[in-house]
Design goal:
4-stranded parallel beta sheet, 6-stranded mixed beta sheet, globular, signal
Length: 392
């Protein structure tokens, strides 16, 4: 009986030791809610990135990577509480997420309090790696300034007048602020700004204010729409016939479902974070082929970003020899370069923002493709994008 008891104790200790050796990562993201599509892409990409970077083992230095999923439901209070739970009760080594900028801003102080890493993807607001940043925050996703500078390159020109329509929260306001800053010195003027609640579905009043502000202006007139999720402001404002005032609509890239609506805008130019046909590298080739095989569709906007995040985690752990000590990881990740489906990315040491390419596109419509195709005008490399450091 004693031998059996001793054997059982040894087995239990072995299991506990094995569990303790796991590298535990929390993915705290809006699995349900308005940005559910973004969340699924991000998680699928994360798992594919870890798979690719570990050669299919899902291990680093013999230790298994375990992902614990937590659903914020796109609520800031939930994000804060779930991250506290992950660091405290689950004792994760680091966390990834969330989808929403508003949720991310609620989560940043938690990382600082627990002195644990939070790798932000895909939340975009500049303030995440700007005014609200702390040294435990890294971001693999692009920020508002990267969107804005790339979009400004695509839209700017002498005697161009621009009005903006954006969501009335951190993503929209940070985005417009960065866009205006990026336009300085280009001869392009922002003449009007509109902000609307994130759940807006009727854009009539906002559009009429924009039309009234622009209809009597000379020069080339464009409305830049910065919007995430539903509502379809691009299509609804186009239905109001802005062309009668000589006004064109413009926006940045989006997920494939949203690109279906772009088929009404052949020739429209803008900037996009990712479209599966734009990057030319082995990692993207693998992602496109694997995603098509497993999901019967090409990878989407946030799938590539999720994969970049998974690859960043594995690269950092390889650099530390599997050591998950926070200070060791920070030292390894500051200035770290790693390959992604978008090519090489690099964490800027000053604010831990991932520097990366963006893509200037022009919309082409093909009747045999269900969405509009953002053809490449030019890859905008890290060197092409002077992104301000905003955490000082």
């Amino acid at each position: 009986m004693k031998k059996l008891l001793l054997s059982g104790m040894v087995s239990a200790l072995a299991l506990a030791s094995a569990a303790a050796a796991d590298i535990k990562i929390a993915h705290v993201y809006g699995k349900t809610g308005p940005f559910e599509a973004y969340a699924k892409q991000s998680h699928d990409g994360l798992m594919l990135g870890i798979e690719y970077a570990t050669g299919g083992t899902m291990e680093v230095n013999g230790e298994k990577i375990v992902i614990i999923e937590k659903d914020t439901q796109l609520k800031p209070d939930n994000g804060k509480a779930l991250l506290e739970e992950a660091y405290g009760d689950d004792e994760v080594d680091l966390a990834i997420g969330p989808v929403s900028s508003g949720v991310a801003l609620a989560m940043l102080p938690v990382a600082e309090e627990f002195e644990k890493l939070l790798i932000v993807h895909p939340a975009v607001a500049d303030s995440i790696t700007g005014a609200n940043w702390n040294r435990y925050i890294f971001r693999t996703g692009r920020n508002s300034s990267q969107d804005a500078v790339a979009q400004a390159i695509a839209m700017a020109g002498p005697d161009v007048k621009i009005a903006t329509l954006a969501q009335d929260y951190a993503f929209g306001r940070d985005g417009v602020s960065a866009f205006k800053e990026a336009l300085e010195g280009t001869g392009t003027e922002v003449v009007h700004e509109e902000y609307a609640p994130t759940d807006t579905t009727d854009f009539t009043a906002a559009a009429e204010r924009i039309f009234n502000a622009m209809k009597d202006l000379d020069g080339e007139k464009k409305v830049f729409i910065l919007w995430a999720g539903g509502g379809n402001p691009l299509g609804k404002i186009q239905a109001m016939d802005p062309s009668r005032f000589g006004i064109e609509l413009a926006t940045g890239g989006n997920i494939l479902a949203a690109l279906k609506g772009y088929k009404d805008f052949p020739g429209m130019e803008g900037a996009i974070y990712y479209y599966y046909e734009l990057p030319d590298n082995e990692v993207n080739d693998w992602l496109v082929a694997t995603h098509q095989e497993r999901y019967n569709s090409p990878p989407d906007f946030f799938t590539a970003g999720g994969m970049a995040t998974g690859m960043a985690v594995v690269e950092a752990l390889k650099k530390t020899g599997g050591d998950t000590d926070t200070e060791t990881l920070i030292a390894a990740m500051e200035g770290m370069e790693w390959m992604t489906p978008k090519g090489m990315m690099k964490f800027r040491a000053e604010d831990h923002q991932a520097m990366q390419s963006m893509y200037h596109f022009k919309i082409r419509v093909d009747d045999n493709v269900e969405w509009a195709i953002p053809d490449l005008v030019k890859e905008l490399t890290i060197e092409d994008l002077p992104i301000p450091i905003r955490n000082k």
